[in-house]
């Protein structure tokens, strides 16, 4: 009897031992899987260079592998809206809400009802994803701030160039005043023939680099849209087709800067086709160009992102500045990807004074 009880106890102990070993092996396997998924999130974030937009797209397969069934929501990226719809809805929602600078992420991850260690692991994956996204948004905002500071330093360099040009003019005036004989005058003229082309080129570059003063945006004058757009387009040397008429009174400096920035964007990134420009009767101007690229290929959500450009020559500020300028007068600019063509719609202030 005692031996039978001992055998049962031994069998029970063996069963408990085997069960514990299986549990430990299961938890160890799950822990390794969790570690791999978390490392993948970090690796993906490194590959996309801490870019929040790309990270959301690239992180989804990892989140899906971790048990999440869907991700939906909306991202506002410097004024452009990107809708997120991945997978399918599930019972439990894991919300993400991050807003900083011109970036706003309102996302919701969904997963089936989980219990025990599965729920714990899912929460760890979610918190890792959310923490990395918060860091990426914060880093982007910091980069934007530092870029603004660099621009301020750049303006100081421009001011320094202006000072050098002014000193050159003053020195030239002194030399002209001191030149009395014909030989001195001829020598000065020959010297100027060598120096002036270089100085002129430098002066033109400096003038180009100078920003328009804020005061110039305050003055209001009558503007005939069609004729002024034609003048600006011809000035930058872009092919265009123009139709429609509209006149109003507004800041010419603002009008010119916005039109120029939009046309230069087409010039830098278009395929050489003429830009179709339509002036509407409500102060709206539509710029379009036939194109084969899709909205995704163009990365439309990044078009108004400051300091982002797909062109090596560009600074990524043209469209951003256009939007900022328009916002000061109640206007707007947005991008539309249509079948066979892409277009920018510029809405000048709705309360402009008709000319």
Q: Could you walk me through the main structural features you see in this protein, from its secondary elements to its overall organization?
A:
The N and C termini lie far apart (112 Å). This protein folds into three domains: 2-144, Beta-Lactamase, CATH 3.30.450; 155-209; 215-354, Histidine kinase-like ATPase, C-terminal domain (Heat Shock Protein 90), CATH 3.30.565. A hairpin with a 2-residue loop joins strand 10 (332-338) and strand 11. The chain is built from eight helices and twelve strands. The strands form three sheets. It has a five-stranded mixed β-sheet with strand order 6-8-9-11-10. By secondary structure, the protein is an alpha+beta fold. The relative contact order is 0.08. It is elongated, with a radius of gyration of 32 Å. The chain has helices spanning 2-47, 52-65, 116-178, 182-209, 225-236, 252-269, 295-298, 318-327; strands at residues 70-77, 80-87, 92-100, 103-111, 221-224, 240-243, 247-250, 275-279, 284-290, 332-338, 341-347, 353-354.
Write a short abstract of this structure.
This protein is 55% helix and 21% strand. The protein has helices at 2-47, 52-65, 116-178, 182-209, 225-236, 252-269, 295-298, 318-327; strands at residues 70-77, 80-87, 92-100, 103-111, 221-224, 240-243, 247-250, 275-279, 284-290, 332-338, 341-347, 353-354. Helix 1 packs antiparallel against helix 2 and helix 1 (2-47) packs parallel to helix 3.
Mean pLDDT: 80
Strand order of the largest sheet: 6-8-9-11-10
Query: From N to C, what is the helix and strand string?
Result: HHEEEEHHEHEEHEEHHEEE
| CATH architecture annotation name of the largest domain | 2-Layer Sandwich
If helices are DSSP runs of H or I spanning 4 or more residues, what is the number of helices? 8
The proportion of strand residues reads 15-25%
Structural class: alpha+beta
What's the CATH first level of the largest domain?
Alpha Beta
Low-confidence segments, ≥5 residues, pLDDT <50? Answer: none
Here the CATH topology of the largest domain equals Beta-Lactamase
